[in-house]
């Protein structure tokens, strides 16, 4: 099963690591706890739209660009899942 929160987390983690930023740095700037941001990135928590926007701003990204990344992540995961099902 493909979960939206996992795709959001993966997209945010990729953005953060591509910027060579730490969880601590982004959490401080977004004004969220380090643990919470970590859980969001691991797809264990679903961030509210307000918190997601704060994280995006801390990363210097627009919410729409992150959602575009999420769309690509979801499409990739769904395609991979369909390929496995078709092969069976």
TrEMBL record:
Residues 12-66 form the HTH cro/C1-type domain. CDD domains: HTH_XRE. InterPro entries: Cro/C1-type_HTH, Lambda_DNA-bd_dom_sf. Gene3D superfamilies: lambda repressor-like DNA-binding domains. PROSITE patterns: HTH_CROC1. Pfam families: HTH_31. GO terms for molecular function: DNA binding. This is Transcriptional regulator.
């Amino acid at each position: 099963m493909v979960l939206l929160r996992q795709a959001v987390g993966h997209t945010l983690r990729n953005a953060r690591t591509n910027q060579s930023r730490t969880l601590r740095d982004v959490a401080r700037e977004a004004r969220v706890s380090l643990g919470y941001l970590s859980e969001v990135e691991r797809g264990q928590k679903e961030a509210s739209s307000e918190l997601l926007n704060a994280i995006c701003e801390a990363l210097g990204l627009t919410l729409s660009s992150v959602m575009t990344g999420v769309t690509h992540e979801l499409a990739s995961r769904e395609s991979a899942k369909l390929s496995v099902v078709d092969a069976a």
